[in-house]
Structure prediction request, 399 residues.
Amino acid sequence: MTPRSSSFCRVLLALMLLTGVTGCPKQGEHFDYQPADIRLTPSSALAETEVVPSLLTPLAESQNTVWCATFPLVWANTVNTMTRAPLQVSNVPEALLNQLNHSGIDERLLPPGSYYTAAGRVDQGIVRRIQTELVRQFPNAQPPAFEGATGFVSYAYLENKVQFAQPYSETYKPIDFHEASGKTVPVRGFGLHPGTDFDLIEEQARQIQLLFSESEIPDQRWKATAFALQLAGEQADDDVIVAVLPKAANLQEALDDLERRRQKFQSSSEEKSLPSSPVVMIPNVDFYVDHVFQELCGPEHRIQNQGEYEGLPVTDARQRLRFRLDRSGATIVAQANYAMASAPSEFIADRPFLIVMKRRTAKQPYFVAWIETAELLEQAGETLSEQPAQEPLAVPQGD
Prediction:
């Protein structure tokens, strides 16, 4: 698949992190889902996933791509505290340096109270300060050790939970996720309740707002080939969006494409409400990854800015990400109407999709991931109904 492919990819935009808090079950709701205990994985062990430092990093073929604002924040804090000028590092492509130095990412993108940042010199006690202040604000976080740190340290931590007002129901069957390579993998997911508990369906559906919908199949207008649904309802501070878009050249281009389609739809005469009796299916996403930006650290990468830090090597450039999206971590609102005789509208993220985390009042997101393979998805077993009762997702330990 090329970045400019005319075929549409399934795209999921979900503005959320560390989800998993569950509400009370209702009559007819599947309530037998238990998330697996996932372990921290070095990104080098993931053959189909890339953690990128910039939204402008090109999307690779048949690869998941993950971005989070914590690393650009660390970079910005380094500039503001250490060099007070665009950071120059040897043997780093100029384009990447420009993207990081002028990313426009700052703390205003993050939900209030969800983050901690600090930067300073080791000989002035920055390590002890970070370890003390981080645990004071986030008691469940494991403070970083900063082993071997001798010069300057910049650090950022983000912990945010988006709880759906009414949890979704587990899909009654696995979603056949079609990877860009052509491989099909059955994965677990969530959506509107598939049974006859109409009160539950209506409560789940009331949370959905249709941002845009397009179909290129004349005789199957109910089957959207491009769409965007806002799932969090009006009560949430963060947007949760599920969308279908063509694959873009990079994550920023995908975000821009979504916004253009949304604006065009909102200014059109198209019906803005969600069709009756829709089918909504979204894969569970679950990963806990530790990534080292090898292109930015090591003895060959040295500070070139004039001053006391000139010539010092960048010894570590790292990002650790724990993310989960499931039935309890996103809210879908749609009106159910079983009186319709036509085929139900389908909004199924069964192909490559995008995950985005963004404050409703911010222009830029604070987390973005393009999911093109099933490596980060929760693959389905032989049955979906033989699991113990669901417990809240534990807050991950680490930075």
The longest helix spans residues 251-266. Residues 1-33, 330-344, 382-399 have pLDDT under 50 and may be disordered. Residues 9-40+162-285+324-376 form a domain with the Alpha-1-antitrypsin; domain 1 fold (CATH 2.30.39.10).
